[in-house]
Design brief:
Layout (H helix, E strand, L loop, with lengths): L1 E6 L4 E9 L4 H13 L4 E12 L1 H15 L4 E5 L3 H9 L8 E2 L2 H6 L2
Helix pairs in contact: 1-2
């Protein structure tokens, strides 16, 4: 798994490629927590290159959403891969996370 972040004034983008599973989820969680600690409460998750999203990854998304919403922010998704989208939908979380067709629209939603 590879993670890159891009910080803007009002939003941070977390781009992930590869698998988000029990072996890699700690790195994913640490990256998000670092952004939240820096004061980024509006987060875009670019999951367009995610091959697999496990329950560990889903838990991190839900937990992160809870943390930022307590601070008036939110977590949205940008162009999730079919596999990531399927995992979110199967878990019944598709109602929690707004999904946008591309990164620009997701960033613009804040």
């Amino acid at each position: 798994m590879e993670i890159t972040t891009k910080e803007y004034r009002r939003v941070a983008v977390v781009s992930v490629s590869g698998r988000i599973d029990t072996l890699t989820s700690t790195q994913f969680e640490e990256t998000i927590n670092e952004l939240i600690e820096k004061g980024h409460f509006n987060l875009v998750m670019d999951l367009s290159e995610v091959d697999f999203l496990s329950s560990s990854g889903l838990r991190i998304l839900v937990t992160s959403r809870k943390k930022v919403r307590e601070k008036g922010g939110d977590v949205v998704m940008a162009n999730p891969s079919q596999r990531a989208s399927d995992s979110v939908e199967i878990a019944g979380l598709d109602k929690l996370f707004m999904s946008y067709p591309n990164r620009e629209e997701a960033v613009g939603s804040f």
